[in-house]
Amino acid sequence: MVLKLFYDLHSQPSRALFMFLKLSKIPFQSCAVDLLRGEHLTKEFKKNYSKFQKVPFIHEDDFFLTESIGILRYLSRQYPIADHWYPKDSRKQAKVDELLEWQHLNIRLNCSTYFITKFTIPLKTGKDPVPEKVEKAKKYMVKSLSDFEELFLSGDGPFVFGDQISYADLQAACEIEQPRMVGYNSRDYFPKIKTWLENVRKECNPVYDEAHNVVNMIADDDDNLKAKL
């Protein structure tokens, strides 16, 4: 059975995994899930697909797996991928894991919280964003972006770990692109992040732009929520 990827390109980990599969030339069947319509929250979805009711997840034969980083590690063992994405060398792999673990409580948590505070909660409640909560979320996000720039972009080379791109770059880039949909572009405030994002985009295109099409459309739309900033 062909590998099936269930995803929504509004989702940061979905975009990272979507790009990884395409760039690694791993054959897969696209199975889009509409998060905004709550397709992942139905009883049928939980029973037949993901017990966690999240995306991305994969289905291969009788095997189901959720969580993008767990999926990356599985795919790196199952398929002949280029070593730079997730190196077999223990120390190089551990450095990729270092960022993948760090980001959960840093750029992922805080960029997501800012996005949720400005967009998701107002969408669900029908109420305007609460300015005090937005500013608090922004403060934590900016701190995480500053930490990312200092901790991971201070070395040599165009990518997080030198001259070769890794899955760590994909994951981090997708998280940092997310706030653009609500009017915050880190490129305007962090020069090292700006250069690094352009390096990742150039290395991954046209797949990068394909994965971020929805982000770009919303970020470039003058009628979206950024007009309320």
Q: Your description of this structure?
A:
Helix 4 packs parallel to helix 7 (167-177) and helix 5 (107-125) packs antiparallel against helix 6 (131-152). 53% of the residues lie in helices and 8% in strands. The relative contact order is 0.13. It folds into two domains: 3-78, Glutaredoxin; 90-228, Glutathione S-transferase Yfyf (Class Pi), Chain A, domain 2, CATH 1.20.1050. The protein has helices spanning 12-23, 43-48, 68-78, 90-102, 107-125, 131-152, 167-177, 191-204, 207-211, 213-220, and strands spanning 3-7, 28-32, 57-60, 63-66. It has a four-stranded mixed β-sheet with strand order 2-1-3-4, with helices on one face. It is built from ten helices and four strands. Strand 1, helix 1 (12-23) and strand 2 (28-32) form a beta-alpha-beta unit. The protein has 229 residues and is of the alpha+beta class. The longest helix has 22 residues, at 131-152.
